[in-house]
Amino acid sequence: MKHYLNFIDGKWRDSESILTVNNPATGEPYATIALAGIDDAEQAMSAAQKCVESGSMTKVRPAMRSGWMLKAAVAIRDIADDAALVLCRENGKTLADAKDEFLEAARYFEYYAGLADKIEGTSVPLGDGYINFTEYLPFGVSVQIVPWNFPVSICARSLAPALAAGNAVVVKSPELSPLAMTMLFNAILDAGFPSGALQLICGEGKEVGAHLVRHCLTDQIVFTGSVATGKRILADSASSVTPSVMELGGKSAAVVLEDADLSNLIQSVKTGIFFNAGQVCSAMSRLVVHESRYEEIKRAVTELASGLSIGHGEHQPDITPLISREQQTRVLQMIDKARDDGANVLTGDAALDTNGFFVLPTVIEATPELDIARQEIFGPVIVIMPFKSEQEAIGIANGTEFGLVAGVFGENLNDALRVARQLRGGQVFVNEWFAGGVETPFGGVGLSGFGREKGQEAIFGYVQTRSTTVRIAESGRTDDSSAE
Ligand code: NAD
Q: Is 104 labeled as catalytic in the residue annotation?
């Protein structure tokens, strides 16, 4: 089995402990990685701090950082095919989706390369007696904690703007899927970033992750993961008042209006909830359908789900395995509980009879107050519910504590936009789930978190504003004017 390492202070390093990573499609061990401990975390933090103190990220012209990032983008594209196989085998996702993660990672580097030399301050007018200017300064050491569902693209989503702004970064990879991230780092090492600008360590969240969060050298935290861990991190970072970006979970609803186009909707349901086996923070996990279309759409979604292919990511199926046995058990238990609570399971609700961690695509008819309609499942499970009036639809869609994404499907754009503007969520999709991209801001409200990733706006999560105001002495100016 191949053994992967951590990257600290410009070098690949082994560790005393070893973590085995399983292939979710077979349940078999796939590779091992050095499991970082507190000592490794200390070394990573001190390397990042040395980089900050040296000024090697900030004394250079920002265009220099742009250049490094553009080289990194090219290098990431070059390895996308080979590295996708590793991501597919450690994570379970399809080869094509794994490759897309690397291509998206390259786009983040390219996109924020374009911004690195345009993080411009302003000058606030204060009258003749003063001159003011603002600057956007990097935080210093940015600690970034990454989840397993899109480890490569989410890593790049936070890493690229942080580097563009001139921070040094310590990334903690997720225990369940840390391997392909080492390939991302390996690809960008020769792009020119100074030593200590980026470290990657794979450690246990509760031990190493928590240590990084509480570390006195941590200037900023970027966390992407579950609400429970996000709350823990906020509590742990409260005493040091460390600023953070929190990208947490969701329970996103699509509202289907009377005039929605059926084939367009079904295409969006397919990607919205069954892509990556539903292990997507912004998954379309609830479908709220006008009563006049309810039976037709319920039938179409059930047919879609029961007709999907299921298998190893290497064979490009519609449905891939879940990340772990624990996640598979959790999803099946949630479905069982939904049935006990009175929900109607229309299709799915079973594991495949293999050693892989599969769950059949599942469609559940439920009422909005049930747990299955309110809690994040993180599996290939969609809950469908009818509504009578627009206000009822909005009430159901906004009726959870989350607020990551919401959507509307309907041909009359006046109606669709009227509903869209009343939905709670950091982003709203109209007539296509996952519409948008690297360029469009992404983040949550409520329990889904705060701060925004992606787009130009994200850069402001990686800098702090400094305002400088200078008083201009009156005398010189008076003398000058009297001389005229
Ligand atoms: P998780 O919260 O279990 O773990 C995320 C990361 O946090 C891992 O690297 C883990 O090791 C680390 N961690 C765990 N405990 C920690 C602690 N006490 N201190 C510091 N770090 C700790 O989440 P997960 O299961 O990896 O990911 C799934 C969750 O992530 C879902 O809820 C999903 O919605 C969310 N997610 C959100 C977004 C977004 O952009 N909003 C994107 C992807 C995933």
A: no
Q: Is the pTM of this model over 0.90?
A: yes
What residues does 22 pair with on adjacent strands? 29
Nearest CA to 251 among 222, 217, 227?
Answer: 227
Q: Give the active site residue among 110, 202, 281, 376.
A: 281
- Using the mean position of ligand 1's atoms as its centre, give its distance from the Cα of residue 311 in Å: 26
**Cβ atoms within 10 Å of 299's Cβ, excluding its own:** 11
3-class DSSP state for residue 465? strand
Residue nearest ligand 1's atom 39 by CA:
247
How distant is the alpha carbon of residue 382 from its chain centre?
21
Ordered alpha helix ranges (H), 258-408: 262-274, 294-306, 325-341, 390-397
Centre of ligand 1 to C-alpha 223, Å, is: 7
Of the ranges 356-365, 372-381, 400-409, 468-477, which one carries the lowest mean pLDDT score? 468-477
| Atom 41 (ligand 1) nearest CA | 247
Q: Mean of the pLDDT values across residues 247-270?
A: 98
Nearest CA to ligand 1 atom 22: 205
Yes or no: say if 102 and 152 are a contact pair by the CB < 8 Å rule: yes
Q: Is the dihedral of CA 28, 33, 37, 41 positive or negative?
A: negative
Is 281 annotated in the active site? yes
Pairing assessment for the beta strands 427-430 and 405-409 based on DSSP bridges = parallel
Amino acid at 196: G
What atom of ligand 1 comes closest to residue 228's alpha carbon? Answer: 2
DSSP reduced 3-state for 8:
strand
For residue 13, give both structure tokens: 């390093």
